Structure formats: structure tokens, C-alpha cells
Amino acid sequence: MFMWIIKRDLLLAVRRQSDVLTTLFFFIIVVSLFPLSVGPEMNMLRTMAPGVVWVAALLASMLSLGRMFSNDYLDGTLEQMLLSPQSLSLLVLGKAFAHWLVTGVPLVLMAPVLGIQYDLPVEALLVLTSALLLGTPVLSLIGAIGAALTLGLRGGGVLVSLLVLPLYIPVLIFGSGAVEANMSGVEFSAHLSLIGAFLLVTAVFAPWAAAWSLRVSLE
Amino acid sequence: MAINWFKYSSPASFYSLAGKMIPLFVFAAAILLVAGLYVGFFVAPTDFQQGEAYRIIFIHVPAAWMSMFLYVVMAFWAGIGLAFNTRLSSMFASAIAPTGAMFTFIALWTGALWGKPMWGTWWVWDARLTSELILFFLYIGFMSLQAAIDDPRRSDKAGAIIALVGVVNVPIIYFSVQWWNTLHQGASVSVNQAPAMASTMLTGMLIMVFASWMYAIAVILKRVRVIILERESHTAWVAELHKKGAV
User: Fold this and answer.
1) Residues of chain A contacting B141 with CB distance shorter than 8 Å
2) N or C: at which end does chain A have fewer Cβ atoms within 10 angstroms?
3) pLDDT tens, B156-175?
4) Is residue B5 in some structural domain?
5) Which residue of B has its CA nearest to A150?
6) Cβ within 8 Å, pair A177-B168
7) What ipTM does the predicted assembly reach?
8) Mutate: best of B137, B168, B176, partner A, most A CBs <10 A
């Protein structure tokens, strides 16, 4: 069931590649806007880089949340999934994982390139990439709750940002904190461990909460 | 004699009970407010470090406490409503949110007013301020989610889920921002050590805390009554009230 839903969502994403690319280019454009708006001073850009990349990743991941359930909701597939005897939490976990593969992984792969634009040292690039690798699945998992709650509501897109962004803050703080710690020569593994802890906790609880939310939304 | 604890979980009987309780709480809030402000502004001595400006704590600290406390209460009632499907609990949660958001806003606002003379700045990105701001966002998220859903049952349940997720997140957010940056002074009052302030100041502050408490209860009860009327407008007992001209 878990593998099946991932395979199905990936197939859907491959059939409609523009969705994936839009998110990725959104990420690239947002990150590129900052040097243009604050000026190309390299020292400043280097200190800003982790925060800018993380905020852009947060926004990109959030903007694509609408797609997680809404297409299945509109064509009635989601209702069939809810009626099936399979565990709904597992299904949500699969959907969140597929969402991460489609939106999170491209961001992680793109981040080192954008980091170079900001003149980050190689080691900091590695830390940034691994922090994103651990942190972006958390974004997809928390986002699943928001996406499930706002399913089919008017103005759902703006609403989901109000619900989800405050909950993203801890990931943002430790994600960019890891890179900053590395650049100022401090041990950064504690930050990564904490993001890993968030990942484990959300992987257990977020699918469950999102499954509840889906039941509420489709009642 | 067995007491029927569930009698007042019915909106109809709670409506009249709340109507009788509101004047009591309003009265208590008014008395305590006057007493607290009197102690705060006329009895409590001037602080030797902070001068007169410290007196803002008589508003600031109660508001900050209430903002956090009300969020937990709101999440508690929302959770009870979700688990046991009791309508009144969910109504309570919806009624608490605006008051909680107001106290959060007051705490932020008075904090800014205090920060200007003390720290020389309206705002710093410090742990407490940031987590209070995020708490404000959580209230806003809860209220806008409920406002976006027309079906009251769905809006109650969806609000409950987001409130509970938020309450799990509050400590995480608090500690994450604390480790990230901090300037706000530590708590001035704590249970296990003598308070670091003059006893009259403490008295004034505690009276103000009780005043805010009474005020919050009065306003929340009033709001619950309005929500009950709105949701139960199709029932016979509301029609009865209408006929009597009571609403």
C-alpha cells in the first residue's frame, strides 16, 4: 500500500512534469532575488545564504502542498482511499513521502548550486545540503496536516500558509543554525540531530494527525 | 443525592447558567482591576533601576501569562470536543481564541512600550518575544481556519486538530528560539524560590493576574452565549427565548 501510493503519485508527477519544475524554479528565483535586492556584497551574502535558502525551501514546499490531496479529492479518488480497509495513516505517510520526492529532493539537489552563488565554502555547502535533506521531509509531513485540513476550502492556499508556516519555524531555526554554526567554526551536529529528531517525531505523529484531518474534511 | 454533572454540558442549560455567572465575574474583574491598578500605580514603590517604566509589568505580565494559559485551555477544550463530540466544549474553544489572541497582542504591545525605554528598541528577535509572536500566529491560524469553514461540525474538528498540533509545537518553538537567541530577562516570579521583587509589586501583579482571569472568564462566557444562540437558532428553546423577548 505504502509503495503503491508512492509509485502512483510519482507516476502522476512524471506525467505532469511542469508541476515539479514550477516548484523548483520558484525556489531558484526566490533565492536569486535576494542578491538583487540587498546588493552583491559577498560577505553579507555569505552570512545570509543559509537563511535565504531555507526560507525559499519553506515557501516552495508550502506552495506545492495544495497538490498533495486536492487532485485526488476533486476526482473522488481520495474518497475511495478513505473507504478502503488499508490504514489511512500509512497512506498519508506514502503521500507525504511522494510529495517530498517530487518537491523536496529537487530542492536538496539544487541547494549546493545556489550556495555557490552565495559564495559558501565547500564544507558549509555539505552541511546545508544534509540539513535540507533531513529537514525537507519534515516540511512535507507537517504540510500534510495543513493540506488535509484546508481541503476544498475557499482561499485554501493562503490559509494553509497561515497554518503551516508557524509550525515550520523550528526546522527553519535549526536548519539555518547548522550552517551558521559550521561557518563560525562551532560544532553543528547538535542541530542536525535535532532536525533528525523532528523528522522521527513528525514521521510518527503527522500522518496520524493528517489522517484525522482528512476524515474531518471528507465527513 | 447524585449530582448530574452532565446537566450543564447541554448548551440550553448552560446558556442560562452562563447568563447568571457573567455579572459575578464582571463584578470581580472590575473590583480586582481597580484594586490592582491602585496598588500598581500608587502603592508599589518606584524601581531603583527601571524607574517608573517598570509599572507596565502590571499589565504586561498578566497578559503574557493569560496568552499562554488560554492557548492551553483552548486546546484542551478543543481536544475534549474532538474526543467526546461534546458541542459545548468546541464552542468554548472557539470562544477562547479571540480573547487569547487579544492578550497575546497586549503582551507584545506593552512589551514593545517597555522595551523602548529599557532596551532602547521596540523589538528584538529574542526567544520570548519571538515565541509570543508565533503564539499570536497560532491563534490567528486557528481563528482563520474556523472562519473559513462554514459547516460548524467540520470547523470545530479541524480547529481542534490544529490547536492540538499547535500545543505540541509551543514548547518546541519556545526552546528552539531560546537556544537560538535570547535577551529577555528570566522569569521574575517562580514557585520554588523567593520572588526577586518587592512584595507590594508582587501583590499588585497577582491582583492584576486575577483581574485578567475574571475578565477573560466573563468575556468568554458572553461569547459562548452568543455562539450557542447562533448554532442553536433552529431549536425550540431559542424560539421560546425570542418570544419572551429575552434575546
Assistant:
1) 162-163, 166
2) C
3) 999 999 999 998 878 887 77
4) no
5) B145
6) no
7) 0.86
8) B176
Residues of B in contact with A153 (CB under 8 A): 148-149
Contacts of residue A53, Cβ cutoff 8 Å, sequence gap at least 6: A31, A111, A114, A115, A118, A128, A132, A176
Of A145, A156, A174, the CB nearest to B165: A145
Q: How many CB atoms within 10 Å of residue A20?
A: 18
Helices (H) and strands (E) in chain B, counts: 7, 0
- Domain extent, residue A59, equals 2-218
Show the domain range for B179: 20-184+197-244
Which cell numbers in the block locate residue B238? 431559542
Q: Structurally, how many domains does chain A consist of?
A: 1
pTM (two decimals): 0.87
| Domain count of the fold of chain B | 1
**Cell numbers standing for residue A158:** 493562503
Residue B126 lies in a domain: yes
**pLDDT tens string A51-106:** 999 999 999 999 888 888 888 888 888 888 888 888 889 999 999 999 999 999 99
Using DSSP, state whether B51 is helix, strand or coil.
strand
Question: How far is the alpha carbon of B62 from chain A, nearest alpha carbon, in Å?
Answer: 24
How far apart, in Å, are the Cα atoms of A207 and each of A55, A213, B27? 24, 10, 47
